[in-house]
Structures are given as C-alpha cells and as structure tokens.
Amino acid sequence: MPLLQFLDAAIRWLGNAALALAAVFIGALAVIGTADSLGTQLLALPVPSSLEMSQAGLAVVVFMGLAYAQRRRGHVTVDIFSGRATGGLHVFFTALALVAAVAFFGFIAWRTGIAAWESYLGDERSWGLTRFPIWPSKIAVAFGCVIALLESLRQFVHLLAGNPNAFEAHSIEDEAL
Amino acid sequence: MHIPPIWMGFIGIAALVFFSGLGVPIAFCITLVGAVGMAMVTDLDFVLVTFQTLPYATASEYAFAVIPMFVLMGALASNAGMIGELYTAVNRWLEGVRGGLDLATCVASAGFAAISGSTVVNAAMFTRIALPEMLALGYNKGISAGCIAAAGTFAALIPPSLTFVIFGILTGESIGALFIAGIIPGLLTATFYVVCIPLMLKIKPEWAPQTDVRSTLSEKIRGMRGIWPMLLLVVIVLGGIYTGITPPTAAGALGAVGALLIGLGRRRLGASQIWESVRQTAELTAVLFIIIIGGLLFSRFLVVSGFVADLTILVTESGFTGPTFILAMVVMYFIMGMFIDPLSMLVMTVPFVYPVIKSFGMDPIWFGIVLTKMIEIAVITPPVGINLFAVVSAAGGRVRTGELFTGILPFVCIEVVVLTILILFPGISTWLPATMN
Cβ contacts of residue B396 below 8 Å, gap of 6+? Predict the structure, then answer.
C-alpha cells in the first residue's frame, strides 16, 4: 500500500525531526545552565533571562521527544499480565494501550493547541530582562503532541492491518529508576 | 447519585490499577483516570482548563530541568566508559579478597551512582562489565547476578537520584535537600553490602572462590588514574548543591557539560556516543515528564474530590499512629513492589500517602528517604523487579531468571535491615540536609 508506506515514512521523518529539535534544546539547556552558573559565580555576570529561556526550552525538550518514545514503545508499562499474553489477547492489550495513547495525545494536543493559539494571538512574552516570545514554545508543545498522536495512529493502523510489530523494540536499559 | 469522596478516590485508584494491569502505559491511564475523575467531581470546564495549563506549566518549570541534565550527565559518563574504568580501579585493590568481584561491583556501583540516577542503567552496565568475569572465575551465577542487581539500586539513594527528583516534584519538597539527605543512607547501604558479603561468603565459600590473581602496587595506582573524571564530576555536582553555590538544575548542567568536555578531552566520546546520550536523554525526559504530568493531574483529582482530606481523617481516627502507619506503608510498598514498577508505584501512591505523613507531623525529607529505600527493595523483589529484568536481559542468557530470583534473596534481607535502621533512626537521613547552606 503506497499511501500507507508514504504516511509511515512521513510520520517517521516528523518524529526524527522532533527528536533532533529536542536534542538541540537539551544542548541549549546544558550550555545556558553552565554559562549562567559560571557567569554568576565567577564574573558576577549572569546570562540575561537564562531562567526564562531554560523554561521555554525544557517544554520543547519534553514534548518533542514524545513521538520517538511512542515509536519505541518506551512508555513505562506494568506488563505483568500483558507481557505474558499471546495471540488475540496480546493484540487486545496492544490495541487498548494504543487507544489510550490516541485519547491521551489527542486530548492534550487539543487543549495545548488552544493554549498555543491564544498565546500567539496575545503575543505572550516571558518575564525578565529580555521579554522574548514564548508562544513558539507553546506551539512546539502542541505540535509535539500532534506528532505523537500521528505515531500512535500509525501504530494502531498497523495493528489493525495485522502487522503489530511495525514499531521498534524497546530496550530495558532505556528505562529509568 | 452522590458518591462519598473516600469512595470516589478508591474507585479512581482501583481504575488506575485495573487499566495499568491491562498494560496501558502508566502515563496514559493515570492522566485519563484523573481527567474522568475530575470531570465527575467538578465539571468539564475545570478539566479543560486544567489540561490547557498544567502540561505546559509543568514542562516549563525551571527546577524540573534537573531531570534532563542529570540524565544527560549519566548517559555521557556511561557512554564515555567511566563505569568500566571505575570497576577496574576498584577491582585491582580487591583482587585477593574472597568475593572481590562482588565487593568491587558494590563499591564501583556506589561510586557511579554519584553521577547516575538510574538503577536500571547501573544494573545493566555492571552486568555487562562484571558478570562475565565473575562466571569465568567460578562465582555462583545467582548470587553474582543478584549482587549486581542489588548494587544497581544504590543509584536510587545516592544523589543525583531520579527517584528523589520525582518525589520532590510530586510533593514540592526541596530536591537539593533530598539529594543531600540521600548521601548517608546511600553510603550506609553500600557499607552494609561490603560488610555482609564477606560474612555471607564465610558461611557459603563456594559462592565465590578465592583467586590467585594479584595486581602489583603500580598497577593498582595506575588503575586509580581512570577515576579522577568521575570524582571531579561528583565534587562539582554534589559540592555545588551542598554549599548552595549552585541549585540542582545548574549543578546538573555543569555536570553534563563537564562530562562532555572530559569525554571529548580524553577521546572517549565521538559523535555517535554523544548522539546516543542525547537521544536517551530526550526519550527518557519525555517518558518521565508525561508520567509526572499525569501524577500531578491524578493528585489534583484526589485533592478536589475530598479524598485526601477524608483519608487523612480516616487514618488518624482509625487508631493509626505515625509508626504504625509507616509499618503499614512498608508492607503495602513491599507487596506492591513485587508486581509494579517503582515509578508507577511512586506516582500512584505519593499523592495520598504524603498528606497523611504530613498530618502525623513526620519529616517529609525523612519519608522521602524511607520511600526511596522501599523502592530500592521493590526493584529487586521478584517476580516483577525491574533491575532483575535488566540483569537477565543484559546477561544474554548467562543467568536464568530462576537462578537470579534465588540469588537476590540475601540482598533483599540486607536491604530490609538497612530500611529498619533508617526508620528507627531518622537522624541518619535528616542530619546532613539540616547543615546545608
């Protein structure tokens, strides 16, 4: 099915692009935090609006990594029963998890989308010395949810099409705690 | 039909347990159950506004940037091979001792815990590094794997611990104070392992044969050269937090940049390792934050429904005292820990356990330490212990699950003894944070 393959590739590309953006902002958070800390302690010269920039950047990091985590089925799951299921029961558990993912990402995308739109209309800006716009960060939050929603739908379609393994495996080492 | 708040809360918790038991990721079910619950006890507008504001407000809280920064620091240090160097350095000093590899694993794991907040990463990495050598020298499979899984849990208490960060976010307690409070209990745990393992091997010497391998003094000293980067990171991060020079988030950023520069300077980090570290950080940050957002929503539901207030009254009026409540919590977490992963356990229970703890007038920092210790035990308690799975997975077929389930038991006993000490002597946890700037 060429259309499905195209959508697969497009959603994968979006997820990778979002991950790359998250990576850039992770680097920015580390650099800003270090520069601010050293500047404050050594030169009494803090980075202007570093706190506000870090806040806006953190939101981008969190939501831009969601689609990738969903693609790798990286979300923390209590799989004591579902992990042992096979055949039709396994498909049922997977479907249930994907329906919940669609509901979760869909709902948050909708509400954060409205928040982003209102922020854009009001040209919402940060407090602090440099009053930079924070609506791009809010748009990134909504957009990250939309990509994660698309990824969940992609997985759901593959499940319905009888191809439940169309997403990447997840390594336990990537879990925390 | 009016449902009393206490029942509303219990129904919400039951729904959460039910759906998470069906394999729905914890972040999704805790959020959705919280949303439905809130809609039932307030109105739909309240839910819509909450979802419009809470996700961004949580994800843009400066103090929470501590999570990606410490995850990045640990990932960079791990990908730069610092664990291997630390293990080699410690092992050279312990080669002649019976069970030297077990002890080296414990000491090195405690050391690496000071720059890594993840118990799973610790357990998996030490399985790859230490287990093959242990098995080649005839160590008992189950005990060796159990030792690695248990020593991996040091990362939960020794700062920077992700468990403390999440507990701090869910409760509003100082993450810096929690970090500092974890130092003595974490070191106490490691010390107990180092003392108890030789005692255990006196009774069962066949679990770890004595070896003739001995490094020379110069080899031992040369091995120590590899651990200075880690010591430097520990001093920067923990020293900065303890003295109050840097808040935890800035300390994390300094640590991450420090780990990167050290890795680059020593040619241990290339583009692929850096990308891998950042990728792990991005994924883990996303996964953790949506659970935190869900936990906060669920917590809000429990508060607005009146469940927390009613539960507090119920617990205090039903004859519970502080100590008996703690005892009940230990039993509850021990049983939960057998079946539920620690992060889920944390977000499911803290919203209603924490207010009760406060109502008894107990020190919340101390409770954070006790809770984290209970979580340490949970990750190594069969049948569902995430560290056990990490070891079996990383062992690549060298150890069977059954062998590990037996081998972990002595270490669970050690953990229970340390937990008892931490409960009986709160000063162990509260003294150091009280001296902080």
Answer: none
Provide the ipTM: 0.91
Please provide the distance, in angstroms rounded to a whole number, between the alpha carbons at the two ends of chain A: 41
pTM of the model: 0.86
Nearest CA to B109 among B125, B93, B128, B92?
B125
Chain B residues inside the 8 Å CB shell of A64: 282, 286
Q: Name the nearest CA neighbour of A108 among B295, B32, B343, B42.
A: B32
Q: Would you call A56 and B252 a contact, using CB atoms and an 8 Å cutoff? A: no
- A176 contact residues in B (CB cutoff 8 A): 71, 117-118, 120, 162, 284, 287-288, 343
Cβ–Cβ below 8 Å for B250 and A37: yes
State the Cα–Cα distance between residues B108 and B78, nearest whole angstrom.
13
Length of chain A (residues)? 177
A-B contacts (CB, under 8 Å): 235
Residues of chain B where predicted confidence (pLDDT) is lower than 70: 1, 437
Q: Using an 8 Å Cβ cutoff, are B48 and B16 in contact?
A: no
Interchain pair A26, B285: CB under 8 A: yes
Helices B364-378 and B322-339 meet at what angle, rounded to 10? 30
Are B178 and B368 spatial neighbours (Cβ–Cβ below 8 Å)?
Answer: yes
**Euclidean distance between CA atoms B318 and B146, whole angstroms:** 40
The C-alpha atoms of residue B51 and residue A89 are separated, in whole angstroms, by 32
- Residue with tokens 């979006």, as numbered in its chain: A14
CA B278-B282-B288 angle, to 5 degrees, is: 135
**Residue B158 to residue B48: CA distance in whole angstroms:** 39
- Helix, strand, or coil (residue B315): helix
Summary count for chain B: helices (H), strands (E): 24, 0
Rounded CA separation B273/B77 (Å): 10
Contact indicator for B357, B423 with CB cutoff of 8 Å: no
Which residue among A41, A97, A176 places its CB closest to the CB of B24?
Answer: A97
* pLDDT tens, position by position, A87-99: 888 889 999 999 9
AA identity, residue B349: T
Residue holding tokens 């997820």? A15
Tokens of B158: 């020794």
Give the Cα separation of B25 and A100 in Å (integer). 8
At A99-151, the pLDDT tens digits run 999 999 999 999 999 999 999 999 998 887 778 899 999 999 999 999 999 99
Pick A104 or A165 by higher pLDDT: A104
- Residue B334, chain A, CB below 8 Å: the answer is no
Distance CA B78, CA B278 (A): 12
Virtual torsion, Cα B236, B241, B242, B245, nearest 10 deg = 80
- Whether residues B119 and A177 touch (CB distance < 8 A) is answered with yes
- Cα B64 to Cα A22, B48, B74, B172: the distances in Å are 16, 24, 17, 11
Whether B123 contacts B189, CB under 8 Å = no
How far is C-alpha B76 from the geometric centre of its chain's CA atoms?
19
